[in-house]
Design goal:
This protein has 7 helices and 6 strands. The protein is an alpha/beta fold. Strand 3, helix 2 and strand 4 form a beta-alpha-beta unit.
Length: 186
């Protein structure tokens, strides 16, 4: 990684300030490794991309970065998109397609930031992948505070997990709003 003099930060989405904050943490880390970071709005093949690193935040963007010719792709995996999509749309086809994209992205990325050990374990079990270059960077909103958020999440999820209704590996990053509506009959 240190061999790459430039690292592009790709975030064209109107994400929350939390996403920007975390990308800032990654950017600062890259700068400490002597990479010159540049925020970009498009992933396009151009002269020099094979000599650059890029940071992306979606599985599809990992594949786009590879097609654009980036030499080193850093993926900040923030959620389990296929499972989250199924909970929202209930489409097995959509879930299958998203799983194929996610699988290809996880195999293609050179370095992955996971938000939890549970997420990494979920991917290892689902796709039978061993990750060598990764870092666990818990995701939380600094305005809420890490402790209060963890306690709230734990309190809300403990019953469902202890009853075996939710696999422990899916504890992080999944909204249960739709699932709870179905379960309560609402």
């Amino acid at each position: 990684m240190i061999a790459y003099g430039r690292a592009d930060i790709y975030n064209p989405y109107g994400n929350t300030s939390v996403t920007s904050d975390y990308l800032g943490v990654i950017e600062s880390s890259l700068e400490k490794l002597n990479a010159r970071c540049v925020n970009i709005k498009k992933l396009v093949r151009e002269k020099g991309t094979k000599n650059r690193a890029v940071v992306v935040i979606t599985a599809l963007d990992v594949l786009k970065a590879r097609l654009a010719g980036y030499g080193y792709v850093i993926f900040w995996a923030q959620g389990i998109a296929p499972e989250e999509s199924f909970m929202r749309h209930h489409s097995r086809l959509r879930t299958m397609i998203l799983s194929m994209i996610e699988h290809a992205a996880l195999r293609s990325a050179d370095f992955i930031f996971f938000v939890s050990d549970e997420m990494k374990e979920h991917y290892m079990e689902k796709y039978k992948i061993k990750f060598d270059d990764f870092y666990i960077m818990p995701c939380f909103n600094p305005k809420e505070g890490l402790i209060s958020r963890c306690l709230q999440r734990n309190k809300l999820m403990t019953n469902e997990v202890s009853l075996g209704l939710i696999p422990r590996s899916l504890l992080r990053g999944v909204s249960l709003k739709n699932w709870r509506k179905k379960r309560s009959g609402a």
